[in-house]
Amino acid sequence: MQEYWSRKRDEMMSYVQDCEQRFGMSSSDFVSYYRELESHGTEEEYDWYVCLNFLNA
Q1: Lower Cβ count inside 10 Å, N or C end of the chain?
Q2: pTM across the whole model
Q3: Are 36 and 7 in contact (CB under 8 A)?
Q4: What is the maximum alpha-carbon separation in the chain?
Q5: Tens of pLDDT along the chain (57 residues)?
C-alpha cells in the first residue's frame, strides 16, 4: 500500500510540474489566482488545485 501511495504522489508531482510549465506560473501563484475565481475554472485548473491540496503544497 505504501508503494501505491508513493507512486500516486510521484504522478501528482509530475502533473503539478507539467501544469506549472504549461500555465507559466508557480503553484503558489496559481493558488492565489484560483481562489479569486468565481467558478472552478477549467477542468485542468480544478485538477491542478485538487492535486495541490492533496499534496499540501
Answers
A1: N
A2: 0.79
A3: no
A4: 38
A5: 899 999 999 999 999 999 999 999 999 999 999 988 877 788 999 999 999 999 985
